[in-house]
Amino acid sequence: MKVLYFAWLKEKTGIGEEDISLPQGITNVEGLMEFLKNRGGGFEKAFSDISMVRVAVNMEHVKILTPLKDSDEVAFFPPVTGG
Amino acid sequence: MIRIQTDDFDVGQELKKISSVDNSIGAVCSFVGLVRDFSGPRDNEGEDDKISSMTLEHYPGMTEKQLAKIEEDARSRWELSDVLIIHRIGRLEPKDQIVLVMTASMHRDAAFDAARFIMDFLKTEAPFWKKEETGSGSKWVEAKSSDAGNSKGWEK
Q1: Nearest CA distance, A7 vs chain B (angstrom)
Q2: Which of B15, B39, B46, B80 is the most exposed place for a label (fewest CB within 10 A)?
Q3: In CATH terms, is domain A2-77 a member of 3.10.20.30?
Q4: Could you list the pLDDT tens digit for every one of the 83 residues in chain A?
Q5: Which residues are registered as beta bridge partners of B55?
Q6: CATH topology for B2-145?
Q7: Is A19 helix (H, G, I), strand (E, B) or coil?
């Protein structure tokens, strides 16, 4: 699956996007966030307060209990501030 | 129509274009968002807090998808002859234009209401992020809770 990071999540993780396989036992967005946080370092910082993180799956805004499959594109970002 | 671009836009030129779509158009409403030189409550700010520039980042693909959905929602609520949404990305300075929403309809109510509707949802749904540069450093702009309230206000 493709995972993307924007704004300060990109700065903290140090990457804009990566390709990973959906880790075994991970079924939803919340699980993936926990998995990424457990990588430590910048990832731990980026996901330290998940109430600050918004998620899109396949370019649609979703809640953290949304199920995931390996073909999904998942993006993590702060609340949007356009306009 | 949706355009994401680094270049500036010419409101007069866009107005001319949208007005010529068809002869039944009786009203065009345009909203232009500009870069301000301050962010917080204006009274407490010193020179160092003044915004010298900002950089707009977005999520290519999702931005277009979300804006297309907002345009479609507006068209289903009001009878609109045409809709134009332009949003700029990249580095901008105070006074620069950031966003243009232009709605054309037979009568003014639809044009006014649809423009406001589109801006309210653009603020909460379109994946753009602003980073401001001031004399004391740079910071990501935080979302305002009032923006979420504005788009919720449209729920039927």
Answers
A1: 6
A2: B46
A3: yes
A4: 999 999 999 999 999 999 999 999 999 999 999 999 999 999 999 999 999 999 999 999 999 999 999 999 999 999 999 99
A5: B91, B131
A6: Aldehyde Oxidoreductase; domain 3 (3.90.1170)
A7: strand
